[in-house]
Amino acid sequence: MALPLEREEIELLTEELEVIIAAHLAWFKQINRTLVCASQVNKADLAEDAHLRSPFGQWYYSSDPLPLRESLNFQALGATQQAMHAATRLALLEVLDKRRPEPDVYDQCIDLALRLNTMLRRVQLDIIGELLTTDSLTGCASRRGMLLRLREEQERSLRIQRPCCLCLLDFDRFKLVNDERGHPAGDAVLRQGLKFITGVLRKYDSIYRYGGEEFLVCLPGTPLKEAALVIERIRSGLERLPVRLPSGETLYVTASFGLTEMHPRHSVEEAIADADMALIRAKDYGRNRIELSSGG
């Protein structure tokens, strides 16, 4: 699942889900005790809108989990929770009548409660996976799983008969920034630079931290000439971007770019190598420029 959130917001969402899961398990423990021990029934669990009153329901139907709503795993939670409360209501009515719940009614209630817990854990794992594949400094995707996603884009490109381009970009003289101004200044360059770059990219483009100050951009469904226009907007905008350093100073930086078009009969690794060769030429020819791969 791709979440339109900063890393810190994703971490908070993960913690929030842990609280919701704990609240659900506490509810489940109390319900199970009531059904097994015929203890006092909580009248709130008998209400038609019990699914809205529970801690899970209050969270699920609020605006808090808004970024999760497009996830199919998240959407399935609501139906399971409502079915769980409906089954629970039937079991509790039997307890009120001084009867033990029928085994099938009890089993349905317990099975749905356990299923909801499993589904919540699955959503949480999806979010944790998002953290593992997100670079903590810049917020863009990390190299973890990058090749798999690029191969998927290459297959999609072949299927829809539309080209897909890759671009390697490298911040110019970045080592000098770190050496002369310190690593916090280098971090500011990467953080603010990538915020600008991701703002220029289209919603279906993706960007990965390839290593150090080097990043890889994937431009699906985009011919080489059109891709070059997108990258030129990044290059020209980046050189005019005032980077605010922790010291209060303003720094201007540039980047060099190597652009290639993926070939359907060549591997993703070969395409990246082509982009890398083009990037080396951009550096050799004076930096702050775009070079196209001769193989593109």
Calculate the terminal CA-CA distance, rounded to whole Å: 31 Å
> Can you tell me the CATH architecture of the largest domain?
2-Layer Sandwich
Query: What's the average pLDDT?
Result: 90
CATH topology of the largest domain: Alpha-Beta Plaits
Structural features, described:
The protein has 296 residues and is α+β, with helices and mostly antiparallel strands. The protein has two domains: 7-132, Four Helix Bundle (Hemerythrin (Met), subunit A); 146-292, Reverse transcriptase/Diguanylate cyclase domain (Alpha-Beta Plaits, 2-Layer Sandwich). The protein is built from ten helices and seven strands. It has helices at 7-37, 50-53, 55-60, 72-96, 103-132, 146-160, 174-181, 183-200, 224-239, 268-284; strands at 165-171, 206-211, 214-219, 243-244, 250-251, 255-261, 290-292. The strands form two sheets. The chain has a five-stranded mixed beta sheet. A two-stranded antiparallel sheet has the order 4-5. β6 (255-261), α10 and β7 (290-292) form a beta-alpha-beta unit. α1 packs antiparallel against α5 (103-132). It is elongated, with a radius of gyration of 26 Å.
Report a brief summary of the structure.
The chain has 296 residues and is an alpha+beta fold.
